[in-house]
Amino acid sequence: MAFTGKATYLAGSTLPELAEDVSDLIGIISPYETPLLDALGDPLRDAKSTHHEWLEDELLPNRDVVDDSTIGDPLNETTFDVANGGRFRAGDQIQVEGSEELVLVTQVTNDNLTVVRGYAGTTKENLVDGQVINILGNASLEGAAKPNNRFTNRVRKGNYTQIFTAPVEVSGSDMAASQLGLADEMDYQKQQRLRELIRDLENTVINGGQPAADPQGGSSVRRSLKGVIQHLLTNVMHDGDSGFPAGGVLDEETVNLMLRNIWENGNGNVDLIVVGGYQKRKINSFAADSRTFTAGDTKFTNLVSIYESDFGICRIITSRWIPQDAVLFLDSSRVNVLPLAGRSFHFKPLASSGDYECGELIGEYTLELKNEAAHGLIRDLATS
What we know:
With 384 residues, the protein is of the alpha+beta class. Helix content is 16%, strand content 27%. It folds into 2 domains: 35-56 and 156-288 and 302-378, phage-related protein like fold (Alpha-Beta Complex), CATH 3.90.1690; 63-138, Elongation Factor Tu (Ef-tu), domain 3 (Beta Barrel). Strand 4 (92-96) and strand 5 (102-109) form a beta hairpin. The radius of gyration is 31 Å and the shape is elongated.
């Protein structure tokens, strides 16, 4: 016999006497994590101006290249041109990279070297245009006069600050009404906008750029900071470059090549590798062939969080905001995200002209990236 009494379903979904049942929790799916900012941590100081600057220096170079397409006798030539003659002095022992022959420089005239081949009894080898030359060191004559002084000039580098803002405006009625899942609508809106701004800060720190003209900003020019990717010039690898992986598929050999290039070009200590989701899966697969599992194992692990090589120990960070075809190699000791003094993210109440409360979340930040040759970047990798 069918039920004939009163039931909740008799009036459909709008039965007036039923109490509304809404969970007191608010679910958010939008990503707002900032793994790179978290890894870098809070800076120890603030920027003091909208143009933040720092000094960089380097030692006198001890490498150069042969720059002479007219070498007549590669095995016996005793004079040839180099790209930067000022790096050499009479008495330098030099060696072409990959060669066992030692060569002694006896005279330097502008960019032309006069040398003794097969120095110290070594066997002569062919000298070719474009070869890299390593300067081993200088042998001075006993009692010789002081050589000409050589030094480097410190270089001033800088970056501009960028203002990040988000408005918050809530009506008086909305603030007075009871809300599900929260106690104060104004505070909730502040929290949401702050999450968005911090997310945008990390995205800009990685990918941002400056206007080509008037980077200091103006009445019609927006001042913006230059991100990490835009800073890097020395250790950048693209499709077609020597060592780029076949098919653009990231492999361990390419990662090691980039770490070695950074090690050779500077005194950096790369400790962060920043990748997107696809390239992270490729790094996880580096050890796939060496993993073993037994019949009793109930847990499968395919994760590489730290990569240790001859060139240092690197923590691997997965960021949504890095281009999916890219891998960043960073020395975190040389990277800082600085607020302008007194301008870290904060809420500024604004005057209301009606029945509402309003204000603005404001923050002004810049990126300090020292010694760009201490970092690296791989681009054009496959993403599918």
